[in-house]
Amino acid sequence: MRLKIPTLIAVFVAFYFLSHSAGWLNRPDKNLDATIFLNHIVNEFSGASFFIFLFDTLITYLVFYLLYPNKGILITVSLYLLIGIPVMIGLRFVIEEIILFQITGHHNYNMKHLTLKYYVFDNIYFTMYYNFVALSFFGVQYERFKKLKEKELKFQARNAELSFLKSQINPHFLFNNLNNIYTLVYQQSTNALPAISKLSDLLRYMLYQKEDFVPLTREIEYLNNFIDLQLLRYDYIPEISVNIQTDIDASTKIIPLSLIPFVENAFKHGDLKDAQNPLTIKLEVKQDLLVFKVDNQKNGNRKDATGGIGLENIKKRLELLNPAKYDLIINETTNHFYIELKMVING
């Protein structure tokens, strides 16, 4: 939070002007002649009281600015009441009733009012009246500062959580695919080297993209590479139907790595030998809505002892980056698994 002394001075001048001009204009014995009014305002702003109350306003603002954020309301208000107000009353008395009296020969207060009790109580009123400007100004500034700080903290927490979630993706992805490549190498399959090349390309994409959103065309390229990598590890022709729209605007963007967990899950748990129920992957864009579907039969013999890191991960990332702009449907039975993701991708 920054000091805003010039702005506070401008606010105080406006407040002082309204206070003194309104009171003067409402007096029935005053002529509304513009020249008289102007002279009245000039006298008010050139008097010692204006500068004393302005100085008091600035000091009060500084007291709250320096103390309140660290010391809290109790200590700040106590110091203001026990030290700030008495000092300002004493300062006004010394300037107006001693120094200026020696120069001009005139007291600011009528002599009959120059008693300790009257002077103190009268100036407590004036001090509190003008300090209202400082306190209101600081209150508004501090509330705005707190809201911005809370927003910044939420933003930092969101980024920290996203970074953590992204860090989970790579080990999870690498763990599964290294196992697949290990099997290909062990079997001395001719698909081993192409699989390593595909994995290298995929890891490059995962490691070096840092944006919250990437072109959908780029994500689709990653998705196709992943599917090709998965197909290399089978010793039979998998039953799979892939229908991915290709005529997509290059400016269309999506959350990176948001489609792969669903496809990865289907390959890990799906039965790809059933020609009547093939693994189906479909992606299409309708105006500003992306519709992504994955449908597969489940293979009851394939269990994932590490748990569903990928699906839970993408759910959290969707909530953080695209709240209220997506709809995820997951239907799972003993033998079947289906997901449908609808996501607003523009606007």
UniProtKB/TrEMBL annotation:
Signal peptide: none annotated. GO terms for cellular component: membrane. One of its GO terms (molecular function) is phosphorelay sensor kinase activity. Keywords: Kinase, Membrane, Transferase, Transmembrane, Transmembrane helix. Pfam families: His_kinase. Residues 160-235 form the Signal transduction histidine kinase internal region domain. The chain crosses the membrane at residues 45-67, 79-103, 123-142. The keyword Cytoplasm does not apply. This is Histidine kinase.
